[in-house]
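2024-03-11 09:14:02 DEBUG pipeline.ingest accepted 1 chain
2024-03-11 09:14:02 DEBUG pipeline.ingest length=84
2024-03-11 09:14:03 DEBUG pipeline.predict start
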Amino acid sequence: MGFKDKLSKTLNTAAEKSTELAGKAKTKVDISSKKGSITTKYKEIGTLVYEGRINEEDVNEDVEALCLEIDNLKTEIEELESQI
């Protein structure tokens, strides 16, 4: 194997690793973003419950919808984590 072949193989390996690392970094950013969305939804639930209590309104449907969104986000996070 000549110098050019070795260099080409090394460069290809480096490019593959770089692509792999970039993919993992993007996945980690996606996970972080989804975790942020979950935190926001938790706050929305708290606000709904408090305002519902103050205004004597039934907010169960709205809270349930947000809980389902959180469940979906957690499932997406699990799927992303399995890719890392």
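2024-03-11 09:14:41 DEBUG pipeline.report Residues 3-83 form one domain.
2024-03-11 09:14:41 DEBUG pipeline.predict end
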